[in-house]
Q: What sequence folds into this?
């Protein structure tokens, strides 16, 4: 038996592969659920009910998917150009922190319709600043950005920790290390009333389509793809490698920073060191599940959010640990890698 | 003379349409150093890979001490006493020297590894052959020369009696190379038999007892080092020119590109020195030379991907600074890179994308790519240049080498360039594609394009070029008129003997 490169990839294969991967992942984690002594199909039904069973749970799932879409896009645009930004988590926190600082004090006097877009831009800029350090190290000294961008995450969280216990500390929080809240008129409008779902979801979806357009239709998109696929060939064709990577980095870091800003302005209102349950890292998984396709990121983020939110409900009614959500998402990532392999290769005996 | 330790008998190997080895027979005696000489693609490495069991030959047999060696298993070759030092070392950078040498020598299920015994054996070998090395040093910390020594020690550790070295000096400095050859001579004196692969005339003359010359997969000659000369070897290696090409005479026009004392230094090493040439409109200037003598930096310099560190470059008579790729493309300079797959095209991108990538501004407005115009351009290239095996939207990787080269040629020539920089334009192509590529280049010449043809293929240069310069060690020889040059003279030029070669007719 050997593997042979496929000459042509059919559309059915490309679209079908991710779904096949998720089905296989669900089947595999079904084995674990069975071992835990629960009925498998019932468990998956509970997950769906937990994620979509009521108006509240459905809006919660979409609220959870919003930052995942943005960090997923952050990873997808960077990875497409082979810029390994593992630092979305830190960029998320820095975006959140910047919004908390400017939205609670410095700019709180601005009227809402001006303040909200300004804060979103500030959040994105904060994310960009953080990624430029690893980028500069890579371009100047060829330091692997996988390591440096990852390490920046810890630095970012420590900066958050310092500030929410320092100058940004909310004096009314009974001593808890949390930042002051952003002004009420800086909070994002709700998408659905009496829920936590905010217009951040719409922003994320629109951005996904804009990025898809940019990647397929613009000079920048073509050049960043060339830089990622074959840097040497890109240089020969006159693609300015450093400048292209700089733009890609700004886009990626900006999206992750925006995710943090939107999470603060849409849901929490303030920053703590546990604002993110790993949104930055999950974004990498989301991007890989989507095969780096920006529109695919929307669906991959939804799937991941369904698993995490739904698993809570399942756990409560069947007594299975919520870790099963982590396991299923992780398994689906592995099956996705295998599925992607089979979109490129066929088996010959 | 004693019975040979190694006999290679009638080895043939075919890859697709390419007959890499064609009935090659040779023998190796105990204590002998044989050089396998030939140009790139002559079949040297294929033959040695067959000997070492990496490839299975289509025909022929190999005998070691008279016993037939089973083909296709490196393990059997190692057991029979064959050791191979690869051009690209097969060592792990983060293991120590000792660990690297022991890798593969011990059974997996042994719980303890016999480090002490191995260290003793390694020390004994290193002392016996004068190959000093620190057994506990991390391999990645060693210089390339030292790493090569480890690779040799590894072969000796496996009790090799026949040692094959694939282009051992390719990665070494001159001093390291000299030291290596001293070691090799010493090893031969102690009864080892050695084969080294090379395309450098100086070193085969200096180090080998006997020289086997391969050309186009055939063994064309066998000479004792004492009975031959560099000039003869060059001629044997390249082959005698018989046919003169159909190249219509042309009247070269004005000088369009001129280099004066151009130098390029990379990382403290002079890659090009005092390079001078003048390229006229409507002529082909051929640059011949043995691989690795500065062809790549010269092509990159003129393609806009490498900056010069000294000298002047005049484009259409005007002095210019260091050119970017965009400057080069805008100035009407077409470029055919040496490495089609690495530089010339991005395989995973569509044909239309590769067609316009280097001139995107012309196919875009306000940052948006004009896909329709780009597709039409790609379609026109496909039609005019007979690119087969794909449409504008299909992935470029699906094209064969020849068709990919036609695409690259097409995207350059359809813009009617005033200058064409062609580096190894026909390398690795089948005969039909070679003819097509050559015809296109001559067609461009006729239309007034100035062509700089950098090639290691002497046939190609002689059949296409009006004037020829040789590149040796980053320097260019004075030009000679192609009609007045023969293979022997070019061989001398390629060996760097143009200063004292009074027979060389210098052209203006």
A:
């Amino acid at each position: 038996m050997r593997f042979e490169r496929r000459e042509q990839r059919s559309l059915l294969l490309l679209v079908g592969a991710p779904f096949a991967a998720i089905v296989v992942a669900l089947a595999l984690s079904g084995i674990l659920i069975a071992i835990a002594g629960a009925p498998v199909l019932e468990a998956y039904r509970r997950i769906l009910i937990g994620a979509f069973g009521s108006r509240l749970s459905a809006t919660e799932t979409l609220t959870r998917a919003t930052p995942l879409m943005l960090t997923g896009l952050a990873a997808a645009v960077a990875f497409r150009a082979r810029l390994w930004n593992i630092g979305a988590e830190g960029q998320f926190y820095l975006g959140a922190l910047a919004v908390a600082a400017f939205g609670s004090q410095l700019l709180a006097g601005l009227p809402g319709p001006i303040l909200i877009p300004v804060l979103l831009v500030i959040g994105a800029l904060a994310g960009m600043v953080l990624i430029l350090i690893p980028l500069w190290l890579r371009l100047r000294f060829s330091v692997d950005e996988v390591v440096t961008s990852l390490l920046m995450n810890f630095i970012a969280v420590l900066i958050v920790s310092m500030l929410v216990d320092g100058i940004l500390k909310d004096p009314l929080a009974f001593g808890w290390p949390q930042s002051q809240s952003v002004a009420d008129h800086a909070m994002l409008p709700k998408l659905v009333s009496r829920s936590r779902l905010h217009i951040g979801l719409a922003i994320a979806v629109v951005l996904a389509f804009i990025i898809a357009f940019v990647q397929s239709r613009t000079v920048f998109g073509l050049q960043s793809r060339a830089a990622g696929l074959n840097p040497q060939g890109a240089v020969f064709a006159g693609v300015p490698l450093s400048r292209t990577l700089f733009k890609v980095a700004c886009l990626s870091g900006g999206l992750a920073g925006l995710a943090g800003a939107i999470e603060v302005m849409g849901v929490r209102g303030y920053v703590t060191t546990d604002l993110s349950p790993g949104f930055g890292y999950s974004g990498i998984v989301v991007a890989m599940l989507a095969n780096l396709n920006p529109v695919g990121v929307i669906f991959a983020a939804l799937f991941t959010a369904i698993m995490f939110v739904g698993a809570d409900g399942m756990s409560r009614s069947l007594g299975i640990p919520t870790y099963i959500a982590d396991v299923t998402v992780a398994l689906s990532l592995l099956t996705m890698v295998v599925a992607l392999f089979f979109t490129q290769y066929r088996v010959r005996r | 003379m004693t019975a040979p330790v190694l006999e290679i008998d009638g080895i043939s190997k075919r890859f697709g349409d390419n007959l890499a080895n064609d009935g090659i027979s040779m023998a190796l005696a105990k204590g002998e150093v044989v050089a396998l000489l030939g140009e790139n693609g002559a079949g040297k490495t294929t033959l040695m890979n067959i000997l070492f069991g990496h490839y299975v030959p289509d025909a022929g047999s190999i005998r070691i001490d008279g016993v037939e060696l089973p083909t296709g298993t490196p393990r059997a070759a190692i057991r029979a006493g064959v050791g191979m030092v690869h051009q690209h070392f097969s060592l792990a950078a983060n293991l120590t020297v000792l660990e690297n040498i022991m890798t593969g020598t011990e059974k997996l299920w042994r719980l303890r590894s016999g480090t002490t015994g191995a260290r003793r054996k390694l020390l004994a070998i290193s002392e016996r052959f004068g190959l000093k090395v620190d057994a506990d040093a991390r391999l990645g910390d060693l210089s390339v020369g030292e790493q090569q020594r480890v690779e040799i020690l590894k072969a000796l550790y496996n009790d090799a009696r026949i040692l094959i070295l694939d282009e051992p000096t390719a990665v070494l400095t001159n001093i390291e190379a000299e030291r290596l050859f001293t070691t090799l001579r010493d090893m031969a004196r102690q009864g080892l038999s050695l084969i080294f692969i090379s395309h450098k005339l100086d070193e085969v003359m200096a180090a080998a007892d006997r020289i086997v010359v391969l050309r186009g997969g055939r063994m064309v000659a066998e000479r004792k080092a004492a009975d031959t000369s560099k000039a003869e070897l060059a001629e044997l290696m390249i082959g005698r020119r018989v046919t003169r090409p159909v190249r219509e005479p042309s009247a070269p026009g004005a000088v369009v590109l001129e280099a004066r004392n151009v130098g390029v230094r990379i990382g403290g090493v002079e890659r090009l020195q005092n390079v001078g040439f003048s390229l006229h409109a409507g002529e082909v200037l051929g640059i011949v030379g043995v691989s690795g003598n500065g062809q790549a930096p010269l092509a990159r310099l003129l393609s806009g991907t490498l900056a010069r560190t000294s000298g002047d470059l005049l484009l259409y008579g005007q002095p210019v600074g260091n050119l970017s790729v965009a400057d080069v493309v805008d100035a009407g300079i077409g470029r055919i890179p040496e490495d089609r797959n690495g530089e010339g095209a991005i395989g995973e991108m569509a044909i239309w994308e590769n067609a316009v990538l280097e001139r995107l501004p012309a196919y875009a407005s306000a940052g948006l790519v004009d896909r329709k115009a780009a597709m039409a351009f790609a379609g026109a290239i496909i039609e005019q240049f007979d690119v087969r095996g794909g449409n504008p939207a299909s992935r470029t990787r699906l094209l064969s080498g020849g068709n990919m080269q036609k695409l690259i040629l097409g995207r350059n020539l359809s813009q009617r360039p005033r200058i064409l920089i062609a580096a190894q334009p026909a390398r690795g192509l089948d005969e039909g594609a070679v003819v097509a590529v050559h015809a296109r280049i001559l067609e461009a010449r006729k239309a007034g394009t100035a062509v700089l043809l950098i090639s290691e293929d002497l046939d190609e240069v002689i059949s296409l070029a009006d004037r020829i310069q040789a590149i040796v060690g980053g320097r260019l020889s004075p030009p000679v008129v192609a009609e007045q040059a023969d293979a022997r003279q070019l061989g001398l030029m390629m060996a760097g003997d143009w200063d004292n070669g009074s027979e060389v007719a210098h052209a203006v």
About this structure: Strands of chain A lie at 2-5, 345-348. Chain A has one domain: 37-320.
